[in-house]
Amino acid sequence: MKIKFLLIGTSLSLIPTLSFAQCVATQDCATLGYTETTCNGGKGVKCPFGNKWACLKTENDFCTEFAFDQTCTGENQTPGSKACNGKYNYCSCNDGYSWKDGKCQKDIHDGAQDELYYCDGEIIGVKTPDMEFYIAIKDLGEKAWTSADKACRRYSSCGKWRLPTLDQFYVIYDNQSKLNTLLLNNGGEELKEDGTYYTSTPYRSNHDRFDMAEGDRAGSWGDTAKKLTLPVLAIY
Fold this sequence. Notes:
The protein is of the alpha+beta class. The protein folds into three domains: about 30-55, no CATH class; about 65-105, no CATH class; about 110-235, Mannose-Binding Protein A, Chain A (Roll), CATH 3.10.100. The protein has five helices and 16 strands. The chain has a five-stranded antiparallel β-sheet, with helices on one face. Strands 12-13-14 form a three-stranded antiparallel β-sheet, sandwiched between helices. The protein has a two-stranded antiparallel sheet with strand order 1-2. It is elongated and about 95 Å long.
């Protein structure tokens, strides 16, 4: 009998503690979800403890909250599968295009695409007008020849890039204006018209340099000054 009495007493002693932990009364309107001072058209419920309201969402509010903001009337796009208030949160794209950053953009694959060369969806080179090779979208700065050679080979994992030959620099020089336009239009930098660039063409115990100001090979091959580095990619 004593054992039964103790068990019952213990059980009953827990009830007030559990009840206190689970049920906490509040008359704070904001805590209960009543946060608006008024509702559009009176569509809502007034807090019983104050003057705040919990408003019903309008269709427009719902559409805005869930980013239904596309009309899908642009190029290469058609309406998505579900609409809200006459708008869509994405658009279906024509073949060869994908939905990205709020519009249908052309699918880009690594490698050559007409005048441009891509890697991981980004433009890394532009094609010379003679259609024989690409040059990097911008030079890699001034380097010693050994460092310049390594930097060009490591320029990108997409294609085998390297230093230009002397003959390739003559092509670059002759088409400087067209290349500069192409570079600038695609987020690159102009060729430095007074710069001296390293080439891969050997000369005596060093390598030829190309002087863009003169449009010819540069002198002073024995100096150790750093020269500009411009990767190129031959088209095979």
